[in-house]
Amino acid sequence: MIPMPSALLFLALAQQAAPTVLDQRFLPQFGVVTISAEGSRLDVRTEKDGSKTEHEFALPEGRIVEARCGPWLGEQMVIALAVQTGETTSYPYVLSALGKARDWSPEPALLPHFLDPERHWFLTSPVFTSTGTPFRIVSVNDHNNGSDSFEITFRRGWMKRLEEAAKIEEKILFDSCGGYIAEPWRNGLAVLYESPSAPR
């Protein structure tokens, strides 16, 4: 076997470890947002007006297989995740830092959920879990003009013919008062709507 030069070996290892881009979109407050992941590591990069920011977090466990971002509170961000652990996929989400909360200290009970307590990036418990074919993250929306409500839509199944519509599974999390809450639906301000698709 011919030994590989150290520089080439380093390059090969670096290429293998490169995170996979899972989402890239323009959010007005952030510019171009790129969400990448490698294993349980989540990378968030923003580029706006020649300025770049990078945030890197490590989830407690699992492998991130899908991510999709959307706006929250006009100037913040929600990142919905699909995380695989064995045969189970869980679906938590991440809330970005609140600029107005720089001097705010998290409640002790919530500290384990902060990916970065100083910059206030928060990870919820899974909204739900599934086995088998994972749900797709279809959309992450803040459609309430800067309020703290948002909506995340998950869908499983594909239609090839109209009669297959009933095979589509859909779950929609609507949170009317989003914030640093581990299980948002338990305070009565959020709901997880679950339904197979019904043709109109």
Number of helices: 1
Q: Describe the main β-sheet briefly.
A: 7 strands, antiparallel
Task: Please provide the ordered H/E string of secondary-structure elements.
Answer: HEEEEEEEEEEEEEEE
What's the β-strand tally? Answer: 15
Helix content: under 10%
What is the end-to-end distance?
A: 65 Å
Shape: globular
Number of domains: 1
Approximate strand percentage: over 45%
Structural category is mainly beta
**What is Rg?**
19 Å
- Mean pLDDT reading: 84
Low-confidence stretches: none
Question: What would you note in describing this structure?
Answer:
- This protein has 200 residues and is mainly β.
- It has one domain (20-196).
- The protein has one helix and 15 strands.
- The strands form three sheets. Strands 5, 6, 7, 8, 9, 10 and 11 form a seven-stranded antiparallel beta sheet that branches. Strands 1-2-3-4 form a four-stranded antiparallel beta sheet, with no helix packed on it. A four-stranded antiparallel beta sheet has the order 12-13-14-15, with no helix packed on it.
- The longest helix is centred in the first third of the chain and has 11 residues, at 6-16.
- It is globular and about 55 Å long.
- The termini are far apart.
- The mean pLDDT is 84.
